[in-house]
Amino acid sequence: MNRFPDRIDASTLLGWAGDPDAVTVIDVRNPAEFETAHIPGSYNVPLSLLGEHAAALAARLDRQVVLVCQSGARAADAQRRLAGVGAEKLHVLDGGIGAYAAAGGEVVRGRARWGMERQVRFVAGSLVVLGVALGLRFRPAGLLAGGIGAGLTVSALTDTCTMARVLSALPYNRGPRDRTADEVLSELPGLRSAA
Known about the structure:
Layout: E1 7-8, H1 10-16, E2 23-27, H2 31-36, E3 37-38, E4 43-44, H3 47-52, H4 54-60, E5 64-68, H5 73-84, E6 90-93, H6 96-102, E7 108-109, H7 116-137, H8 143-158, H9 162-168, H10 181-187
Parallel strand pairs: 1-6, 2-4, 2-5, 5-6
Antiparallel strand pairs: 3-7
Helix pairs in contact: 1-6, 4-5, 7-8, 7-9
């Protein structure tokens, strides 16, 4: 029987954290979000980099892995991508880093930035308000609000977010210099030698 379920809550991760040689925590948020707050001992493997190098990462993981993001959505995406290339022992932290902190887990805090989901809500909301306001004067401008609504609907149905991908490319969200896949992968513990 597998004592490691696919999704775990924060208290479970707190219990597992006592044996860092058995569990590796991978934070799939962008480097700026990771720099703002992260679980001590976790490794930052941004979802964009993971997506491009999922097979290389999956081939080298040899222990239980807990995937973390802000809420759990990006971590679930990372889990699907890694499982799709044969990785096993993958778990998503329900509620993300916020749930971990709320459960009493230690969080390393750095430069304060808004999380990606908050940025998406702010930009989407602002565009809707702008579209409605402009639509009062110039009828076609009201279509902007409808376009944003349609985009958010597609985002929810596909569990993807194009706006987050665009926002993550902004300098504000880059944080420390972008690292290469080799740099990121070489930091992970417990790696098997690549065949």
